[in-house]
Design goal:
Length: about 80
């Protein structure tokens, strides 16, 4: 799991993040807060349509995916890459 979002009321998303970068983002953007109901060290909640540009949001989604993907077993990575 690399992202959480309420599909009925998509106002924010929880994304996994490198802990140091997570802190930097929280200090820089009002829309980035410690992950709601998640490990606050590794997850951020990002509120949409505030002060995080869409390009940065896309980058953070990819960063979250890459963090999770890199931790998967090699066999599962291969299966996902083939699929």
């Amino acid at each position: 799991m690399f992202a959480l979002i309420d599909v009925d009321h998509a106002v924010s998303s929880n994304l996994k993040c490198d802990p140091e970068r997570a802190i930097e983002l929280r200090e820089k953007f009002n829309a980035v807060r410690p992950g709601f109901h998640m490990n606050k060290q590794h997850w951020n909640t990002i509120t949409f349509n505030e002060d995080v540009a869409d390009d940065l949001l896309k980058e953070l989604i990819l960063h979250s995916y890459e963090l999770i993907f890199s931790s998967l077993p090699k066999k599962l990575k291969n299966e996902l890459e083939m699929g």
